[in-house]
Amino acid sequence: MKNKKVYIISHSHWDREWYLPYEQHHMRLIRLMDDLLEIFETNPDFNSFHLDGQTIILDDYLQVRPEKKEAVERAIKNGKLRIGPFYILQDDFLISSEANTRNTLIGLEESKKWGNPVMLGYFPDTFGNMGQTPQMMKEAGIKAAAFGRGVKPTGFNNAVINDEKYASQFSEMWWEGPDSTKIFGLLFANWYSNGNEIPTTKKEAIEFWEKKLADANQYASTDHLLMMNGVDHQPVQKDVTQAIALANELYPDIEFIHSNFDDYLAAVMSDLPDNLSTVTGELTSQETDGWYTLANTASARIYIKQKNTEVQRQLENVTEPLATMAYDMTKSYPHDELRYAWKTLMQNHPHDSICGCSVDEVHREMMARFDKALEVGKYLVDEATLALTSNIDTSNLPTNSKPFVVFNTAGVEKNEVIETTIEWMRRPFSEGKPNELYDELKQIAETLNEFHVVDSDGTIIPSELVTVDVAFDYDLPTDRFRIPYMAIFVTIRLSLESFNEISWQSFGLVEGKSQTSDKTLFDKNTQTIENDYVKVAIQNNGLIDITNKETNITYPSGLIFENVGDVGNEYIFKQPENDIPLYAHDFPTTINVITDTPLVCEVLIEQQMMIPLSAEDLLQEEMKAVIEMRDRQAQRSKDLGTLTLKTTLRVEKNNRQIKCHTEFDNQMRDHRLRVLFPTGLATETHVAESIFEVVERPNTVQNKHWENPTNPQHQHSFVALRDGKNGITISNYGLNEYEILTNNTIAVTLLRAVGELGDWGYFPTPEAQCIGKQSVDFAIEVTTENTLFDSYKRAQSFQIPTTVKQTTHHTGVLATNYQFLSIDGKQFALTALKRQEFGEDIITRGFNLSNQTSSTLNLEINEYTPFEANMIEEFKENTSVSTTIEPAKIQTLRWKKK
């Protein structure tokens, strides 16, 4: 009887783009697929090929070989080509919760169109693994996950000690999420290439197998050994079945088979020992030396992360909610258009793409994809808001007003000041020459200097006139030719107060004086901005002291801009040895008030830093010689240039957040810019938004093996520190990297400029230096126990704009003001409001912001009844909708019309 069984799985880890541009990888994919289809027809002993867990490969192949569709379909049906369950192999941490969900949802749907997907959460090369993976996989019907990073393998002879939470003696383990969901975890302890290029000659085969079997046995918990026959962009080994036949001859006590994940998982999971380790939560290589967590990809090419945030927010939080609300009027939902937009966006979500760690050509193409998906989202918003506003009753607004509707599509009440532009008067080109129409309207515009806004009750809403201007515009009717015109446009500030989540309100713009208070927010004597919640004192050097007026606690000397050198690469930050940080407040600073009204105060802080122009020339030689970044000796250049930081502090009348917008023209290379907020809070942990989770992390490294002097972390919309009663929440827009420093200082990375890809060779990436004009946005909120969860949701809302649509006076079947979805649940964060994929039921999704059961949760949509569903939008049997939400639970509801 044979003692062990070796399962050899042929595969190729397919990065769509990385160290070569997309089409270079694409053409190699065509050859791989051609070879596979030939092998399937000619070699009956070839069991199957694992297509890397991503169905987009099929799209990419058939784009060039459409005539091969039947052959592909036959290969999948016959089990030769193993596909799914995902659309792409994403980076978990740098895409949104919903993007992670849609990747599984679309991947499973597309897999099932072809055949049966491999029900394995496949994460071979993701740069860390999200803590909610167990719950998300189980919600999709997947009971196991395979991954290459995140857990340190120790081998069964090296017992896992108690303080090693992220280590396992075996390559097999249990993985438990923050909600206590547990799935089977498979670590590629010897990487996903441990069975690559198996020799077919005796001498080489013995050398190969002696080493490979010993390596696998070191970590295997059963007699079922896994050999992954492939690696990055690996052509299929055409003689693999010959190599397996030879192995069976050489090792008669071991059975070598060409296999697949379905068979391997069934065998290994039926034979697991009782002493498997259990790893918990997110797996980010916490037990390593800290150098190759690859978390610094969160700050590589920040412009990509900002654009990704914009498009995700557009699709998830603007387009889908508005299209969902418009459905009752249109009786249609743009399923196909949204699917196209999502697939286009997700083409940017593989780890080498969204992480910003590819060659420049890759990231240029990404920006075009982002724009394509964004424009689809905007087009669908125009359609949805037109359908809605055409049916919203605006007849009760003053006849001398210009009606417009404001939509709050965020899952939290808004208290903020927005700016919007309303068309006041137009002249179509059919009425005269454009230049004459322009001059006519310009004269009229010069007489318009007072406007106010009223609501549907006639109440004057706090507002301020910003500008009156004349400009060209046009209409594109659906039933006739385009209509160009000149128009007077009035831009106003409008204060939204207690504006309910997922709702709309109608307003009218009226000519005439506003009744806004004369008291402004800035005190020039004390250089202080103040509203009902917060007081911001601006020091002469640009630092700010923030006082929470509810507790009278002050957080001094925040808004520190720090600059250091970076001789690392797109993957890893490396500060030069003995490099001394430079701080903007040590350089000349000017402070100017640019806006000071009863609704808004904006103060411009301009700081002129003198920093090195680059690293010294030695860095170029070290990169060319492929010297590992830890061994580089290059310092920063002695040649200096001026980096001017222009930061606009914005405080609004009824907003708890202090908004910051920083602009700079980066002409320097090889450096990093961060903004720091000392908190002085006495706490050993902090929290940050991750995937369907507000994850708690230690402020300092807990691992004795850690050598990296930095400890970068991922975030989505916020990072927060609190001492039990008081705290600070720092929101951001597309700034995904932070670190907690001494004195519990929060550091958020604003720019990391580097000149090479890194990894296994020298790939210059001059565009990763991010030369040119940059701008970043972040916000600060001081919190109490009562405002903590709201601050998290306001941080999410910081990324979600309101939507404004001008309309006419008319009657309508929709209420003038209306809340489509109401949410009663302090700890609940909404992530999705959409229609069921290819159906008409409404889907809502969200998660518990804490690891405690919520006191109450109640969602209501008028005339709809909710039912519990899973993340792929299937009803859960025998499950009623709870009025609370369990710790860290992801809740999907499917709403049916009553």
TrEMBL record:
- Where in the numbering of this chain does the Glycoside hydrolase family 38 central domain appear? 297-370
Indicate the family of this protein: Belongs to the glycosyl hydrolase 38 family.
Asked whether the UniProt record includes Hydrolase among its keywords, one would answer yes
Q: Which GO terms describe its molecular function?
A: hydrolase activity, acting on glycosyl bonds
EC number(s) in its UniProt entry? 3.2.1.-
In terms of superkingdom, the source organism counts as Bacteria
Query: Sorted alphabetically, which keywords does the UniProt record give?
Result: Glycosidase, Hydrolase, Metal-binding
Protein name (database record):
Mannosylglycerate hydrolase
Which Gene3D superfamilies does the UniProt record give? 2.60.40.2210, 2.60.40.2220, Glycoside hydrolase 38, N terminal domain (3.20.110.10), Glycoside hydrolase family 38, central domain (1.20.1270.50), Golgi alpha-mannosidase II, domain 4 (2.70.98.30)
Alphabetical list of InterPro entries matching this protein: Gal_mutarotase_sf_dom, GH38_beta-1, GH38_C, Glyco_hydro/deAcase_b/a-brl, Glyco_hydro_38_C, Glyco_hydro_38_cen, Glyco_hydro_38_cen_sf, Glyco_hydro_38_N
UniProt enzyme class: hydrolase
Q: Name one Pfam family in it.
A: Glyco_hydro38C2
